[in-house]
Each structure stands twice: as structure tokens, then as C-alpha cells.
Amino acid sequence: MEIFANFSAGLLTVLQPQTLLYCFIGVFLGTFIGVLPGIGSMAAIAMILPLSFYLEPTVAIVMIAGVYYGAEYGGSIASILMNIPGTPSSSITCIDGYPMARQGRAGVALFITSIASFGGGIIGMVVMAVLSPGLAKLALQFGPAEYFSVIFLGLIAASAVSNGGALRGIAMVMAGLMLSTVGIDLTTGDLRFTLGVPELRDGVHLVIVAMGLFGVGELIASIKANQSGRGRQEIDYTKFYPNRREWRASFGPIWRGGLIGSFFGALPGTGQTVASAVGYAVEKKVSKNKDQFGKGAVEGVAVPESANNSATQTAFIPTLTLGVPGSASMAMVIGALMIHGITPGPRILTEHTELFWGLVASFLVGNIMLLVLNIPLIGMWVRLLQIPYKLMYPAIIVLICIGVYSLNNNVFDIWMTLLFGIAGYLMRLYRFEPAPLLIGFVLGPMMEEQLRRALLLSRGDAMVFLERPISGGLLTVSALILAYGLWTTLRNSRRTKTTQTHNKTSSNTGASS
After folding, report:
1. What are the Cα distances from residue 409, in Å, to 213, 306, 397, 404?
2. Which residues contact 376 (CB under 8 A, 6 or more apart)?
3. Which of 7, 8, 47, 6 has its CA nearest to residue 26?
């Protein structure tokens, strides 16, 4: 009953005119940017973050969350109509969504996407409301050693599951940790790694790093690939609604995808892409229409959309209750809260009850808004996709520059953003993912603070991290994840070398004969 009472209070908070307005702005802009191929939710949050500085904390976090799951909604539109994922997780939707569009069933695919996204979002909201209080009570037993260990676990998880491999992921996390040390040491007051540049005295701002790596970097990477920007599919509104068989076929996948996404969304370092991929694989195993997957199966659209949207909601569980982001986007959420003077952790449910339950209730309101918005605005999204990228990209760059300049009214910040944008583009060329770097950058100061506290309390005895049961258990899990990630990387490297050797031997044999 307490959960219902808190949820009702949160709903009253969300239904306040100002909060409701910014919730709508968040989901609309998130959907708008999610439709644009190659941009993604990370860049969307980075663009909207400067605006949140001037809002109340609850209103700001509701708007940012709306941008986050709104982008996941919008990402599927480009996937279905153009076979270009608007977000990484919507790449799974391409497998069956685009074939449906080519069969003249784009309307059905988009309608199923809206329903599945709504269903997955509601499942994720319920899971978050039920699990978060219990997890927060457990986290109240945490001391500095436990906080250090759980942050370390989050960093290891983020690096080990990196698509570029565990070694590359660890390198990016380390780069983020090093970047977070730039500026004044809050303990000693000394300047660290500023290279004599006065503008770096206060460190590098989170918005600059995020907009550079994910905004400018993504734009540079996608300009060459998407030069025309012309939509190729038209929607047949006479075949807009799913038939009875398609409704029945999508109901089970929505439930299964929602539960799978809720599980993986709550695990730091996995996120929507992993949830969508696992949900699709599971559905392909249990479905009676296995042969239709990849050819335009309704189940193949419903399950990844449900999974990635439920994962979007439950990603807030470790972020708010433990202070450990499960993705780069969640790292941005932590940064936004800290800018408002709110430290994520177990006390957020007691010290900032209105914010937490207002956020949970906003998931319901925001998902309803998205459901109402997506269906009638499909035609507009199609026309938007037909705008040439040579016109679209300059407008986005201007918005990024305005947002960065507004931080300190300093042109130096714009040049720093460009520098990080070039770095982000080079990372993509050499298969180094920028997301672990951003997670390391956000968690670095918190990790350093907890490490110092733990060592001060133990008088320099590092064994305190292993002697305390929770801390020792978390470090053991971290070691296992790290070992598995390294083993997987080495195994894949050996397989690649074996394949290359075999191909070289075969070619030499053929040339000799």
C-alpha cells in the first residue's frame, strides 16, 4: 500500500502544469531527435542538459528522462522506414521492421512499435517502483568501502561488455577516470593536469564531453554514410492497423520482451542494446514462426521494442538507488542531479521522495503522451526523414554550439567540444566506444572520494575492501566479470588469427597449384 500511496503522490507532482509541460517537451524532443539516424539519445540529452540547469530538480529530471525514453521510441521509425537505426538498440528492429516496410506494411510495423514500446515502458515502470525501495534499504548498509566496490563493479561491467572488446573498454574507462582528475583537487586544493590553461581550473564540464563525443562525433561519423537523407518508403494508411492474427502474435513477445528488458536494464553496463538482442534471440527460440524471423515477422518488431523501452525505465534503478549508471545516458542523469546538488544513492528515496516518485509517475504520463503522439505524427516523421542531411546537420551543430557557449559564455568551451568531437570520431574509426569513457568521467570523482574515505577510516589498510563482506563480494564479482571479458577478447583474437592463417594458407596452396 505504501508503494501506491507514494506513486499517487508522485502522480500529483507530475500533473502540475509546469512539470507536465516539460515532460511533454522532453518526450517530443526525444522522439524528434531519435528519428534522426545516427544521433541517438545520448546526443539528445546532451543538447537538452543546459536547459535543465534553470529548472527545479524534479522538473529537470522528468524532462531529461522524457528525452531518454522518447529517443528510444523515435529510433525505431528510421529503422523501419529507412533501415537506418535511429539509436543503437533499434538496430535489432531493422531485422524485421524494414522487411515489413518493403512489403507495404510500414504502417502496421510502426503501430506495433508504438504499442510494444508503451507496454515495455509500463512493465519497466512497475518493476522500478517495486524493486527500488528494497534495493535502497540494502544500500543503506553501505560504507565508503562498499560504495567504492559498487562503483568499481559498474566500471568493470561497462568495460567488459563493450562491443570493441574488454581491453578497449578498460582503456576507455581509464581515460575517463584520468580526465575526471583535471582541475582543482577538492581535498588538497592543488591544481591537477590543467597544463597551465586557466579555463581548465574547474575541470572539463560534463556537457562539453558529452556533446563532443556523442553529438559532434556522431555527426561526423554519419555525414559520409547518410549524404542524401531521403526516405524511401511511403506509408499505406489503408493497411495501418494490425489484423487479429498480428495482435495475437505480438501480445506474448511484448510481455517477454518487457520482462527481459527490465532485468538487463537494471544491470549496470548492459542497457537497451543487449536487452533487445537477448529478447530477439529468446523470442526466435520460443516462437512457432521461426522461419519468418528476418523476413517481416511481427514478433521480431514487438519484442526488441518492448525490451529496449523497459530497459530504459529500469536503468534508473541502479542510477538513483546506488549512484551507479548503467549507461552513458544514465551517467548524464547523475551529472544533472549533481549539478542540482543531489547525490544519487539510497537516501534519495527518503531525502528526495518527491523527485524519485515524481520520476516514476512521469514514466506513465510520458509513455501515454508518446503513444498518443506517435500514431498521428507518423506522416510528419516520414517527411522529416526526407530532409537532406546537408541542411539538417548544420542546424544541429548550431544548437550544440549555443548549448555549450551558454555554460560559461566562453568560446573556449566550443573549441573543447570540437576537440572531443574529433576524438569521438577517431574512437569510432578504431572501434573504441566512447560510452565507457563518459561513465568513467562521471564516476571518477565519486570513486576517488570513497577510496580516500575508506583508506582514512582504515588508517591506510587496503584489506578493508576485502574484509567487509559486501565489498569483498562485489570485488569478487568484478574480478569474475573482468576475467570473463578478457578471456572472451583473447578467444576472439585467437579465432581471428586462426582464420586469417587458414585463408592465407589456402590462397598460397591455390597459387602454387
Report:
1. 21, 42, 17, 8
2. none
3. 47
What is the structure's pLDDT at 233? 45
Q: Is the dihedral of CA 106, 110, 116, 119 positive or negative?
A: negative
- CB count in 10 Å sphere of residue 503: 10
Partners of 192 in the β-ladder: 183
- Give the Cα separation of 311 and 124 in Å (integer): 7
| Residue 276 within any structural domain of the chain | yes
Rounded distance between C-alpha atoms, residue 441 and residue 181, angstroms: 9
Whole-number pLDDT of residue 232 = 46
* Rounded Cα distance, 220 and 422, in Å: 8
Domain range for 477 is: 2-492
Contacts of 5 (CB under 8 A, 6+ apart): none
The whole-number pLDDT of residue 378 equals 65
Asked whether residue 213 is domain-assigned, the answer is yes
Amino acid at 499: T
Question: Is the pLDDT score of 168 beyond 80?
Answer: yes
Q: Is the pTM of this model over 0.70?
A: no
How far is Cα 442 from Cα 324, in angstroms, rounded to an integer?
Answer: 10
Average pLDDT, whole number, for the chain?
Answer: 79
Which tens digits make up the pLDDT trace of 18-60?
Answer: 989 999 998 888 888 777 655 667 777 877 878 888 888 888 8
- Number of domains the chain contains: 1
